[in-house]
Each structure stands twice: as structure tokens, then as C-alpha cells.
């Protein structure tokens, strides 16, 4: 594992206060965020309810609420096409074993994808680019961790089940949205440490699995596809796949799942005269629609957020040398949360970042443009009263001692 470096961008932007904030009832965790044309959808969990709520994008005014899933919501996603219809569609999965499609007009579930073992929690899912195939990944129960496939026009039972691709909770499923020789190429990752790519249209599971990699000693919590990038000699190459573990390690792989890079996400840090930033955990990653670069959103145990990126991700170390391990700190969002941040949504179209945490706060941060060329500025765009300001050790306090054993871990 290489030792990466983190440098502060000369165009760093610092947001010290959200432009809009909503506080949900105490003991509410905001788990997932999704974007509809005029509304944000959030999935929450609390001792008393597990709901999906819609908020106005401009004002964060609450608009409507769905009951969610019995036992708890696990994932929330908006897709462009579903069951032959081309429109933004809100979909969720839950511990009740269902994947539900929500109708904003009737404020109810319009389609419910069922499996034959509803006691298996569905932890992850995705929908194919044409909207005609849904894949769902289950938690491990006994010896079974399943990838279930549905035709959404026939939701009462799966059209096929793959039961041997993974041997533990299936935490991530992502269809490749770029054109490939395989029409429905599915990326899956699991707590068993395996990353796999499969032909989702193949009934025979032995024939379906195309490539497999074992990230030894890691329980994979997040994974995704990397977009095409250009190397220093202008040759375009498919960057492949990224993965993150619940021990805050990060890796990249080719599309054939050959390893490229591996690092501890807590290792790269900034220590300057006026700023110190040390990442405690990865919140999420997202791909820019403009630059095709991966943006990583990191969190601190105090509830603050940073975005970092490395444009050479997915390019072999031998091609880029030390540049492959040089990360840039681009944005900081501080004083918006008091607890661990569980979810972020990069609304690139509206230049905003939506964040949700274990403190029950939903924050909208305006003015986020990762390609900004301005100076280091302190954004304070809110007219609301400022939340209580706690000392942030990375704002002008010099070096800090990091107690790794005493640092509170993110709860997943």
C-alpha cells in the first residue's frame, strides 16, 4: 500500500454555514439522498419510524412523506427510465425484502418487486440503462446471499437468482451505464471482500460471472464504476472500478479487475500554517458529469466534510509515477453537522451539495462549483441564525494529535 499525499488546492473554497437547514426529530439518522427534478428525497431511520420524505429543492420545505419499509430502509435511488417509461423514478429497498417504486402523485407505492424469501433484507439495487431489468442484492442469511433479477413489468417474482457470486452481504450493485459488448454488465461487491462483474442477462450463474477479484482482508462497503480518463500522452483508457472498505481503505481496479492502487483514506492529510484537515471516513464518491472525474467526499468525526480528488485514478502507478498518489483538497463544509455525516448528494446541475447526518440535520450548501477558479474564500450565504460554533482543529489551530484508537468510528 502506497503512502499518498494531500495538497491544498490554491482555489480551495470553504463553506462555513449551510444556506438552508432542516432539523428532523431527535434520534433520526438521514441514510440516503436522491434528486428528483424539483425535489430532494431522503431516506431516514429512527426508533419510531422509517420514512422517505420529499423536500423542495429551493427552500427545503417538506412536501410529502412515504412510509418506507418495515424494519428499515436500506437504499434510495432515482433512475431515468423504469419499466419502459422514460421519467425520473424514485425507488427504495428495505429490510422487509422488497424494492418499492414510489408515485409522487398518489403519495404511495406504485410497484413492489417481491422475492420468494421476503425474510432476506435487500441491501442494494440498481436498474439497467433501458429500465427493463432490476438487480437486487440481499443480506446473508444462513448460507445465502443472493443477487435477484426482476423484469419490472412482472414484479411478483424474480426472473432469475444468482446465489454463489458472493458469500456475505451484497453491499453494492451498479450497472455499467457506458456502452459495452455486454448489454447489461453488472458490478457487485460484498462484505466477503469480492468484487465481481457479471452478465446480468445470463441465467447460468457460472457463465454469468466474467471477472472476480478478492480484496484480501477487506469488507467492501462501497464500490462503483470509474469513467474514461486520458493519460498524460492523451491516450484514452477505461479507468475501471473503485472500491472502499469499512476500514476506510480505498482501491482502484481495471475493468478486468486487475489491481491498480490501494491506500488508507485516513493517511493523506493537510497540515499548513492556517489549516489542518485529517479525514476520518469516506462518506461517498460521485462522478462529475462535466469532467468525468471522481470526487470523493470525506468526513470528520466532528461532522465536517471535505471533497478531494485525484485525476489519475485508475491509471497504473507505472504510467504516472508519484502523481498517481497526489490528492487535492478542493472544498470544505464546516459547522453544519454535530455528528457523523451519513450521506451526501452532489447536485451538480444546481451547484449545490445536500448533506444528511446522524444528528438529524439536512443541510443544503449553495455555490458548490468544483471547477471554480476563485481564491480561498469563506462562504456564508445563510440568513438563518448560526448554529453553535465549535472549535474545528483544522481551521487555524496548527498540527493536531490524532488519537486513532480513541477516535469514534462511523457507524454503518
TrEMBL record:
PANTHER family, per the entry: WD REPEAT-CONTAINING PROTEIN 89
Pfam families with a match to the protein in the record: WD40
Keyword hit for Repeat: yes
Q: Which SUPFAM superfamilies match?
A: WD40 repeat-like
Swiss-Prot/TrEMBL keywords: Repeat, WD repeat
Q: Please report the organism this UniProt entry assigns to the protein.
A: Marasmius oreades
Q: Which Gene3D superfamilies match?
A: YVTN repeat-like/Quinoprotein amine dehydrogenase
| Name of the molecule in the record | WD40 repeat-like protein
Q: Does the keyword Hydrolase apply?
A: no
WD repeat boundaries on the chain: 90-112, 334-366
Where in this protein does the record put region Disordered? Answer: 363-412
